[in-house]
């Protein structure tokens, strides 16, 4: 689109760069995570809650012998917890050498999108959301918010905040 | 940087470390040709490799050093200057290597200074005749050290070396390096050491070793841990499903896994000698710098421990050895003066003991100067003068672990900065270790360090609280007590704060579920108490269930959770569940937050509190009549009871209750308060021997710990004064006021001592009374010494402690207080010591005797104000006299 024209014919590759996103659903909203940050997608079985932990941290879980810190995307986005606790899905992520599982309501398909189509956050987007979002893709039937994985996992623990 | 260079750097650095050690040994033992040969060979290797890699500076330095060492071999006397020169050459080489490692190229610079010195020294002695020609007669077998790997390019000259050493004697059994010994001695040992030098018997048993990246080992360890967990999971499943088909292969898998685990653990083990390697050089340099003669003896260098642990203790060990050399060992003159040999010894000893490794660092120096430490502790305000005087030497010695504590008279470059020992302690405790000090004046000091063999796997007790499981490291667990209402062990409450009576002591109980915030509802009094000791604090963790002990693989907490002090890590249990590991230190800190020392009474806290120390005092806070809070030191309290008001009997208008088979008088804590006639009446029971008294209170509020800073109130005898406790003004109750109300005879002994503005010696055989009077006296500005018996009092006086006034009870358990005074009057030193005698009853005979013995005042035992005014009068006259 416009971007490609601006960059001229010699740079179509960059402009046309396609990025694959794993899409997830939270509270009826579709969000995308860059596929190269996603290590795996798994169903959460048993979880150990960690008393005194920050609210974002739901607990610790055993993912094939590794201890993974489970973070609730809902809580990160300031959304209420899911009432009925069905099958919980998590996205396996790495952040600063540590393993995290991001709990989501559901996992959707993988989308291949042009980087150039990413549009900035609407200015009036809630500040909490804006800080976690890198921008918005307009899909045919809905909007896809691209999550900044590092920002999602960069919340402060209670002590640091205090 | 290419691989060749990297390999060269690693290896050369190792070689240099060995040369360091060997040179120091050689200096002490100049006739040991094995050592010399080893040094020579290593330096030669370095030189050759440098030449090959095109590193002219290094080559030139190594060459010059080699030349000088060649002279040693030719019989030149080994002098300290020469060795120092070679050592500084090695240091230069290390600097260049470091630079090389950073930039990949040899740095610019000239080493003409060192090279000239080396050459001059070599030339100086060129003319010296080889007096040791006879030595050459030994047979030249060619079995010197051989490298068990492909020769590096620089090593082609081994043939040349061979020639050079042909005249040297054959290898003797003494091996050149301690940690090489370990390999030879114990072929079963893993490839923990990367050294490939085979000292003796090169042709026979060669140990094959390869270099393995530490990361590879770490990864292997992680994988094995996972395997162990998976195995545990499988075992768990097979326990539930009884399928014989699985059993046998599973058994086999289990065995193999266990062996694999052990094997991999072993690869991480390294001989402690690796951490000691730098010490000979350190000691040598220090002896030169401090002009002392110090010998370093190392035993058990082959004792192995986890490399992670090794890394942590490396620096503390070096620091402690430096300390021993600097503070411990005296100068040769001082040593001679006290009849010791000129040369001091620092002895390192390491050995296994159960699941721990013990390291001792002992010197035969002057020992700790306890007097100086005491003084310093008081100066720095860590403890009061009276406290340090009462402390045992072992307790005093512990002060050196306080931050910023150094008694060195002047700051030397070596030590005296007072940084270090606290860091040493912290580092060691960080890995679950302990440090102990033993010291004897003039005989030396021994530090004993105990550390776990490995940090990766620990035994832990699995407990549960509100359906969630936790692991508590077994080392912290002292015992388990089952508590159920109605049984022998019952959780009791002081205003909701749970405590447990355990062998006559009140053990603070921390319900795990409460600290974890797992519940807001009432805590059940049923479950298990895990009695835990952290440092000197002892407390009980109340859990709902206790399962079993399991070897767990400790995994670090996520950085997002590390701020929670309560957990030290997590692990995966056999059934696959993630479980948090509770850190007893963190628990103690969390609960004790607000007071630096934690809020729990130390194990010896009872005794301490009775001395009325200025340290924190645990107070029982209660409400009497009226609005204000009242408090009494908990150490005075025997029990807390809640009785049915119906059981209170009134005899002649005085309330009594049958208590433990006796009649116990009750007294209301406040004039405005009435003892209840119905419902429940809360009692604070005080007893001394067989005599008990119940103080009826409105309500027991809390147990708090705080510094007792009492402001005296003069006009009320039922109060010692007031103090701010937990931010609230609280009246500190004078138990002494109540006692005469109920017992005329309550006073078989009381002694008091003080010593600030004036020092008082308080003699009374009842700890209770000393407890009671000490705060009163202290609050009035006196320093107080206490003694229970006449003998003890005499001992204190005899030990040279300064005492201005003696306060003694007349009725003591062993002898009469008058006998004490009589004994004192007989000595010239104490003939005129002012004495205040405490009498229970007025008795003409006693008054007469008091006069005869020149007793300054005779005060009724419970007359607090009388005592204080007598004291202040005395002080006035003392000042006049002075």
Automatic annotation (TrEMBL), chain B:
Keyword Kinase: yes
Reaction equation(s) it catalyzes: ATP + protein L-histidine = ADP + protein N-phospho-L-histidine
The Histidine kinase domain, residue ranges: 182-455
Domain of life where this protein originates: Bacteria
The UniProt record lists the keyword Lyase: no
PROSITE patterns associated with the record: CHEW, HIS_KIN, HPT, RESPONSE_REGULATORY
Modified residues (Phosphohistidine): 44
Domain Response regulatory: from-to ranges: 759-876
CheW-like domain residues: 457-593, 616-744
Primary enzyme class: transferase
Entry keywords, A to Z: Kinase, Phosphoprotein, Transferase, Two-component regulatory system
Annotated HPt domain residues: 1-100
EC number: 2.7.13.3
Name used for this protein in its record: histidine kinase
Species in which this protein is naturally found: Microvirga terricola
